[in-house]
Specification:
By secondary structure, this protein is mostly helical. The chain has 16 helices and no strands. The longest helix is centred in the middle third of the chain and has 39 residues. The model has no long low-confidence stretch (mean pLDDT 84).
Length: 396
């Protein structure tokens, strides 16, 4: 076991040492770490055996997302938020349901052996996006701040919006009575989204006040202040999850709140939070690569891969392009927002939620999700820099 994690640490060190040089390559960190997981896993060197670690990987993915969502949201400026919020609202309230519906229809056509709720579950798990795969996009100065903020807003909120639907369809897949499911759906939306938003604001506001007071009174060493921000981000997620709200929503809303209530504070304080998230992200992708052996058949069906490609393109892009009609954006900008909605850590967490839910058709659903994630890691990672370079004049 220690040999395996030694190799993991060496892989992380290698990437850290060459990150600047590799940033100009069409290779993302997720691609490298998933490949490392495959090499170290049972289908490679066999030094990492994590067959029964799916619950742990889900927790790791959740905590990673909590840190990254908080850090990404804290970088959003109020003026830019006011300019682009209508774009994100269109994509979340119209584009997201359309994507889920299109994914559902496609699943019903391609996988007739799955029930209707299983198809809805698959579509929902793959409709969630986050910027974990899109760092080259959301941090690239060649892309205008409004476009980067729109990607941040959509990816930061839609995974949280998908959680209630995911849990609802899991319940229906277990043949819960429809009237029970209706009550569950209403309760989930109220608790997951409402409680998540309220607690995200409250925890961050109180935490920021506490940090400011401790700093003014010189109770806290300056080197511990950035660490306290990371703890606030984790508390947003953990407390909200314990109270049956959406930790994803709480983390992102918490980051927005931090940005708004700490306008005069140096936002470099959040760098440690992002760095911690990136480090956990490295480990998550490696463990995901290791667990691919146990979650995806060694000979996946061509339909699994075909659904993944169509999910990333037609299912995601057409609804997004439709809802962006009439917004005044040029075509390269619309395609940018439609394409760079990557299936990142949220879908990894959702895959392991489905595994642990023990629904009857989990063994058929999860491989499709994993194939789509692998395709997304490759296609979004390879295309990010070339697309931005090609259309820099239109995205600026």
């Amino acid at each position: 076991m220690y040999l395996g994690f030694t190799l993991v640490a060496l892989c992380a060190l290698f990437y850290c040492l060459f990150a600047k040089r590799m940033s100009s390559w069409p290779v993302s960190s997720a691609m490298i770490f998933i490949l490392a997981g495959v090499v170290f896993g049972p289908q490679g060197l066999g030094v990492l055996e994590l067959e029964h670690a799916s619950a742990e990987v889900r927790i790791l993915a959740d905590l990673t997302l909590a840190l990254l969502l908080f850090a990404d949201a804290s970088s959003i400026k109020a003026k830019t938020l006011a300019r682009v919020k209508y774009l994100a609202i269109r994509m979340l309230l119209i584009g997201l349901p359309l994507s889920i519906f299109c994914g559902y229809l496609l699943a019903r056509f391609m996988f007739p052996e799955l029930g209707m709720w299983d198809c809805a579950l698959l579509a929902t798990a793959l409709a969630a996006t986050d910027a974990a795969l899109g760092k080259p996009v959301v941090t690239n100065p060649s892309v205008s701040e409004p476009l980067r903020t729109t990607v941040n807003l959509e990816s930061g909120l839609n995974d949280g919006l998908c959680v209630p639907l995911l849990l609802l369809f899991i319940a229906l897949s277990k043949e819960l009575m429809m009237d029970e499911a209706s009550d569950l759906a209403m309760g989930l939306f109220l608790s997951e989204i409402g409680i998540g938003a309220v607690l995200g604001v409250l925890i961050t506001w109180l935490g920021s006040k506490a940090v400011r007071l401790a700093t003014e009174k010189q109770w806290a060493s300056i080197k511990w202040v950035p660490m306290s921000i990371s703890v606030i981000a984790l508390l947003c997620f953990l407390i909200t999850q314990n109270l049956h709200g959406s930790g994803y929503i709480a983390s992102f809303v918490g980051g927005l709140t931090f940005s708004l209530v700490n306008k005069n504070i140096d936002h470099d304080l959040v760098d440690d939070t992002e760095t911690s998230g990136e480090l956990l992200g490295m480990l998550t992708w490696i463990l995901f690569g290791t667990l691919l052996y146990h979650t995806v058949s060694l000979d996946p069906s061509w339909k699994d891969w075909a659904y993944g490609i169509l999910s990333l393109t037609v299912v995601r892009m057409l609804p997004t392009l439709l809802v962006l009609t009439g917004t005044g954006l040029n075509l390269p900008s619309k395609v940018f927002l439609a394409w760079f909605g990557p299936r990142g850590l949220a879908s990894v967490a959702f895959a392991f939620i489905i595994i642990n839910s023990q629904i009857p058709n989990a063994a058929e659903i999860v491989p499709v999700i994993c194939c789509t994630i692998v395709l997304s890691v490759a296609l979004h990672g390879i295309s990010a820099l070339p697309y931005i370079k090609r259309f820099a004049h239109s995205l600026g």
